[in-house]
Amino acid sequence: MREIPVDEKNLIEGKTGKWEVILGLEVHAQVISNSKLFSGAATAFGAEPNTQVSLVDAGFPGMLPVINEVCIEQAVKTGLGLNAQINMTSVFDRKNYFYADLPAGYQISQYTQPIVGTGTIILDLPEGKRREVGITRLHLEQDAGKSLHDQHPTKTYVDLNRAGVALMEIVSEPDMRNSEEAAAYLRKLRSILRYLGTCDGNMDEGSMRCDVNVSVRKPGGELGTRCEIKNVNSIRFVAAAIEYEARRQIEVIEEGGTIKQETRLWDTNKGVTRSMRSKEHAHDYRYFPDPDLLPLKLDADWVAKLKAGLPELPDPKRARFTKEFGLSDYDAGVLVAEKETADYYELAQKGRDPKLTANWLISELFGLLNKAGKSITESPVSAQHLGELVGLIQDNTISGRIAKDVFAEMFETGKAPGAIVAEKGLQQVTDTGSIDASIDEILAKNADKVAEYKSGKDKLFGFFVGQVMKATGGKVNPAMLNERLKAKLNG
Amino acid sequence: MNELNHLTIAAALQGLATKTFTAYDLTMACLMQMEKHRELNAFVTETQDLALQTAMNSDIRRAQGQAMGALDGIPLGIKDLFCTEGVLTTAGSHILDGFHPTYESTVSANLWKAGAVMLGKLNMDEFAMGSSNGTSYYGPVTNPWRRKGDNTRLVPGGSSGGSATAVAARMALAATGTDTGGSIRQPAAFTGIVGLKPTYGRCSRWGIVAFASSLDQAGPMCRTVEDTAIMLGVMAGYDPKDSTSVDLPVPDYRKAIEGGVKGLKVGVPKEYRLDGLSPEIAKLWEQGVAWLKEQGAEIKEITLPHTKYALPVYYIIAPAEASSNLARYDGVRFGLRVPGESLDDMYEQTRAAGFGKEVRRRVMIGTYVLSAGYYDAYYLRAQRIRALILKDFTDAFKDVDVVLTPSTPSAAFGLEEKFDDPVAMYLNDVFTVTVNLAGLPGISVPAGLDSRGLPLGLQLIGRAFDEETVLRAGRAIERAANFTAKPEGF
């Protein structure tokens, strides 16, 4: 746990004074792999129940687990991406408990010797602030199956498709102090996992699930008793659950009560956390090393090779974008948050003005994508086309204003900007003769206004500009128009 | 002894090769013996049709001059702990009622690939927990041997009691067993046959119902050391489906056995001279030493100082692993289900009805030693001592090539004896558990009869993956002992 100075802005006002909230997160991230952690069964989401189950997953007699090397590789990559200690020897343990969706009666997990030790993650906070949060550990474990209680009035159905799928449990230090930081942690972690290709981070499909540990204390004082809110399935709900839970705890303490260490559930509908019905039996998981699996030993060269092959991650990429492309820290941060966006940007800006490209991407493309509910990978405008558009602006083929219309059409039709411009004759007019002719025509039509202008009504300048633009369909180069018009009116 | 079921594997292979008889005849002879001695209760399931069909296929292959496997046409019994595709597999337990695996254990599959014939599934202590075959849900197995002038029914030992009886009673030419604390060697000693527990990792555990995963190992039970070598050669081998199996080539064991023991250094551990060791056992042990010496071996006294802890350590580690391994028998997916008011109630009803007393006892011991607050004092400590026991052997094997001990502290006892006293029962494993804890290969070879005419065995323990030396020394004992006694009436 880091020493984190108390920030007044984070404190919650109670009846007896201010309270500090202490937050730690446990994320279960489903490993991207074709087959399960200890069996060859498939892992695809959304398959018919019990169609992706091997005899090992179903806990049949005499079946033995065999480590899937891909899952190990993914966990090590993730550890490297979190700047974490890679443990060259780790041990798989059995966590014993009975449940219908846990066929073997134990979950294979890692208890005292996880594959990844301490690491760090940098939170990107509002106003360009950054803060480091500690990672306690990352370990590999099997997912359980799914109990379906709503298929029959008296029976529970069990779907074992998920049973045995590899999860990385990533545990943070209790280094966060408000719900915004918790949300930033999840966004950053998800971003890193996606960059690494080790977890798709889809919380709505359950491939990333979050448990939140919440406690409150007097600022800088003794740590309070924590409650764990289980399985919150969106970043928004994580923030809401923290807000609710912190206030609940403060209220309990201020009314003379004590916080009981317990597991709570976030009720999405009511917007409250509530105590999980305490099971009749207290769980004693009786962890012990799984005798079916030897301790996992990693090869130093293999780890080094993985490290060398890691993709550029969001933090170094943002630094490079500011340095190489002269982008603001904020813009670079927006562009690197998703790997796909960063890739799109890099492709689009090739040979163009990088800042102009960034502006178009962030303000125009994001705007339209948001409105259409699409992601960058579904963008109707390709990176090449956006780059081409920026090029057309840069070389004065079209004005920025015309570019917006062209862009709207690109988004609509997916056509190349050059084609649209040619088709509609939108090329900017830069020929002085033709500009002069347009100006002369407007001035001739509005001799009265010219006279008013000349008698001192400067504001009419804009009127003339507008008239010329209107008459030419906006195609006249604005700078040249200004220059020629001024010369004529003042001449 | 012109009956085919009395043949050794080596002799039977010879007879088949020279077309003196067919695999069908050989198999039929075994099936008839099984039928004749059904009262011994050696088999849980007899697979007559399958056996005859497989034997016929072997005969056809031979007639057509096709390539023959190392055990082609040899009828075997399979301990009911090995999952056999489409054939009821019970582990001697009620809880596996009606369980017909859709898969074949690697070891049995290896045997079928070599052309062997399955006679049926052999009775055993429930989940291999026992030293008398008295804990089987399918009833006790009777040892074909009787004390001289006494008709008391005796145990065949356990847990591979059905295997031992089937081989000793000439129902099968050989059988598979599994050994977690002595479950091959003790019944082999009690029935006058040879039983080998290979090095941990030598045979795949895939498809064998697990008792204690870090100790369980499959091995052959045969009438001669040579047959044991032939069987092991087929059963052994690396299996990528078992992460604890070891990727080493399988030597030609049969070739190794006749090498003799000249110059071989044989260790005799002083700690095995227990207080109150029966004088007959002590005498047999001395005899064994003398036999090896006569054949040119060099005898050395060695020390295995942590031996006295082996039994308590075993009875912590094995139940701990078993308590977890047996959690899957919950009535949800296969086997017995006793309905209940709730999920927990169903678990409790099913497991209470499905598991026998000894299994329940060990599940409770195992749960206890792993529980919070006791783990360090029991399980962790036991694991530390286990490491010391292995170190004892590692040190000893710097000076000697093989270790000679008795196989059991007594000969076979009566079916009604020792059942009320689990600790007395556990003491049967006193000479054998150390070998499992250290993961080493051990063989029991019949060496003589006690004063009441019951067989006794000597055990040879070798270095990890040095089954060849163990078999070679075993063959030397076998040669000297010239054990030809047979249970009366068989």
Automatic annotation (TrEMBL), chain A:
Superkingdom classification of source: Bacteria
Reactions performed catalytically: L-glutamyl-tRNA(Gln) + L-glutamine + ATP + H2O = L-glutaminyl-tRNA(Gln) + L-glutamate + ADP + phosphate + H(+); L-aspartyl-tRNA(Asn) + L-glutamine + ATP + H2O = L-asparaginyl-tRNA(Asn) + L-glutamate + ADP + phosphate + 2 H(+)
Listed SMART domains: GatB_Yqey
A UniProt-annotated Pfam family: GatB_N
Matches recorded under PROSITE patterns: GATB
Keywords assigned: ATP-binding, Ligase, Nucleotide-binding, Protein biosynthesis
Assembly, per entry: Heterotrimer of A, B and C subunits.
PANTHER family: GLUTAMYL-TRNA GLN AMIDOTRANSFERASE SUBUNIT B MITOCHONDRIAL AND PROKARYOTIC PET112-RELATED, GLUTAMYL-TRNA(GLN) AMIDOTRANSFERASE SUBUNIT B, MITOCHONDRIAL
Family: Belongs to the GatB/GatE family. GatB subfamily.
Protein name: Aspartyl/glutamyl-tRNA(Asn/Gln) amidotransferase subunit B
Name of encoding gene: gatB
TrEMBL record, chain B:
TM ranges: none
PROSITE patterns: AMIDASES
Keyword Ligase appears in the UniProt entry: yes
Role noted for this protein: Allows the formation of correctly charged Gln-tRNA(Gln) through the transamidation of misacylated Glu-tRNA(Gln) in organisms which lack glutaminyl-tRNA synthetase. The reaction takes place in the presence of glutamine and ATP through an activated gamma-phospho-Glu-tRNA(Gln).
Family statement: Belongs to the amidase family. GatA subfamily.
Subunit structure of this chain's protein: Heterotrimer of A, B and C subunits.
Protein name: Glutamyl-tRNA(Gln) amidotransferase subunit A
Organism: Dongia sedimenti
